[in-house]
Write a structure and sequence with these properties.
Elements lengths: L10 E12 L6 E12 L3 E5 L6 H8 L7 E6 L9 H11 E4 L11 H6 L9 H17 L15 H13 L5 E5 L7 H18 L2 E5 L3 H4 L4 E6 L2 E4 L1
Parallel strand pairs: 3-7, 3-8, 5-6, 6-7
Antiparallel strand pairs: 1-2, 1-4, 8-9
Helix pairs in contact: 5-6
């Protein structure tokens, strides 16, 4: 069924014929070749594929960190690439949460300060500041880090740092949560714990969850699965 025939209120993420190519001395290198996708509100999707196939590139386009060479992307009915750069930055901060393989926590800040970082770009009054702090502490409690909130990243294990990154990604109540190899640097037991946590936060927050991974074990945990190969995305 096409997106035109569906209620737009049910569609959270839409990609239409997305192409991403890069110039080379010989000819353009096509990494994504006509990717199309529709995800409804509350959907979960895992994307697998060989190294270098463009999984991270696709995730960066969904997250507006990169622009498609051609094609369209809509998030909750909005075309983010039609926005000015300042508007796009604000849109990204509000609507999209990111969890990367390397957690990207700021080493000089403690866990609570890292979780609160995305909120600094928003103008909030004193009452809203209290609400944001309460949400941050609640998220840290839910990811099992309430007692570690004053610790800096160097004092945490790899799994704890990734849990902190998940809390940070959720602080702005995004509609889309993107995870790029979230268990890639973790041992199998810790990876399983992070997989459990991602499913839990999806259920509690109602976000659309898209996970790029090499792990079939993690990929099989989500409602929808897709393979990216030779620039083509195929739902399984």
């Amino acid at each position: 069924m096409s997106s035109d025939s569906k209620s737009q209120s049910t569609l959270a993420l839409v990609a239409r014929n997305v192409v991403r190519s890069f110039p080379t001395p010989a000819e353009a290198l096509v990494v994504l070749d006509g990717v199309s996708l529709e995800l409804e509100t509350g959907a979960t999707l895992s994307i697998v594929g060989p190294s270098g196939c463009g999984k991270s590139t696709l995730l960066h386009i969904f997250g507006t960190l990169d622009r498609p060479t051609s094609g369209e992307v809509f998030l909750r009915g909005a075309d983010p690439f039609a926005l000015s750069e300042p508007e796009l930055a604000g849109f990204r901060n509000r609507e999209i949460g990111f969890v990367f393989q390397d957690h990207h926590l700021l080493p000089q800040l403690n866990v609570l300060e890292n979780v609160l970082m995305p909120t600094l770009a928003s103008d909030v009054n004193e009452e809203e500041e209290k609400e944001v702090l309460e949400r941050a502490l609640n998220l840290l409690d839910r990811v099992g880090l309430k007692e570690r909130s004053m610790h800096v990243p160097a004092e945490l294990s790899g799994g704890e740092r990734q849990r902190a990154a998940i809390a940070r990604a959720l602080i702005m109540k995004p509609s889309l949560l993107l995870c790029d190899e979230p268990t890639g640097n973790l041992d199998p037991r810790t990876a399983g714990t992070i997989g459990d946590l991602l499913q839990e936060v999806h259920q509690n927050e109602g976000v659309v969850l898209v996970v790029v991974t090499h792990s079939r074990t993690l990929a099989d945990r989500f409602d929808q699965r897709a393979q990216l190969e030779e620039g083509k995305l195929t739902l399984s």
